[in-house]
Amino acid sequence: MSGTGDRFLVVGEELSVPLSLIHQNRLDGLWNEKFKQIIRQVILGKNAWDEPSFEWSIRKLIDCRNLGFIDGSQAVNYITSHDVGGYGNERFFTYLASNGIDHTEPRIKLAFVSLLTSVGIPMILAGDEFADQQDLPPTDDHKQIDPVNYSRVKDDWRQRIFQYVARLVRLRKTSDALAVNDTQFIHVDFNDGKRVLVWQRGNKADQLVIVVANFSDYGTPVGSEYRVPNWPATPVGKQWKEITQERIVPSEWVGKEGIFPWEAKVYALV
Predict the structure, then answer these.
(1) What pLDDT is stored for residue 3 in this prediction?
(2) What is the chain's alpha carbon radius of gyration, rounded to the nearest angstrom?
(3) CA dihedral in degrees (44, 49, 51, 54; nearest 10)?
(4) DSSP of 142-177, one letter per residue?
(5) 101-104: which pairs have CB atoms within 8 A and are 24 or more residues apart?
(6) What is the pLDDT along the chain (270 residues), one digit of tens a residue?
(7) DSSP letter, residue 181
(8) Helical H runs in 26-142?
(9) Which residue from 187, 81, 180, 188 is spatially nearest to 127, judged by alpha carbons?
(10) In three state form, how does the secondary structure of 213-247 look?
(11) Which of 115, 137, 135, 113 has its CA nearest to residue 124?
(12) How far is C-alpha 246 from the geometric centre of its chain's CA atoms?
């Protein structure tokens, strides 16, 4: 029997991610601090903190059920939280810069693809959507007094990130494939220094989303292509659209477009 409590969703913020609180029906969901920890490792090309396999680091990142959650509604995923004090917790741009990453744009975009195509509820810290940075040292006593600098969104490269994230958010809000748990990794390539993984979201052949993600410095030579075997058949009357660039993919290019270092392409059927 339904009651007043059915109108509420109770989500807990406990950074040790005690899943027993969900399994005991004491909470409906938890902040998934492990998502933040994993994305900050793999975006540097490293395995997750307790995972010897890079592949399984990504599998745990993209599908929270591999971390012990039962349903995507139970996990609130994020790249950065409001707890920006201390090393490893900084705003994402600041974290990348402190780890010696000079060209942050592609990695920030790749992180947002991972967030917005993963199983779970995405949460974005205000300002991360355009790569805001910390102006005060990332210490605990500064974390509540370093406001978002919205003027930075006017920077050309930050505006590109903002528009990129906006396109992904629109997909997330409208895609049936991203509203279900169903996730399948259809291609993994670690040959010759590559870290390319391809995951499929959705459970209906005419509503799929495919992500081709390159977590490495590898890029296809100019004029060449990267082939993804096992690409799902294109249903009659449908075509693939690459969401991040808002372009229709010609049929002869499907599953075999070039890739750039630290880039993701997101394809949806339209």
Answers:
(1) 52
(2) 19
(3) 0
(4) GTTS----GGGGGSHHHHHHHHHHHHHHHHHHH-SG
(5) 101/44, 104/131
(6) 455 556 788 999 999 999 999 999 999 999 999 999 999 999 999 999 899 999 999 999 999 999 999 999 999 999 999 989 888 999 999 999 999 999 999 999 999 999 999 999 999 999 999 999 998 877 666 666 788 999 999 999 999 999 999 999 999 999 999 999 999 999 999 999 999 999 999 999 999 999 999 999 999 998 899 999 999 999 999 999 999 999 999 999 999 999 999 999 999 999
(7) -
(8) 33-42, 54-62, 92-98, 105-116
(9) 81
(10) EECCCCCCCCCCCCCCCCCCCCCCCCCEEECCCCE
(11) 115
(12) 18
Token pair listed for 8: 């509420």
Give the full edge-to-edge strand order of the sheet including 29-31.
11-12, 29-31, 75-78, 121-123
Neighbours of 96 (CB within 10 A): 23
**Claim: this prediction has a pTM higher than 0.70:** yes
Amino acid letter, residue 84: V
Which residue is it, tokens 């989500």? 11
Q: Which two tokens stand for residue 37?
A: 């920890």
Structure-block tokens of residue 24: 């005991």
Tokens at residue 257, please?
């477009």
CA distance from start to end of the chain: 39
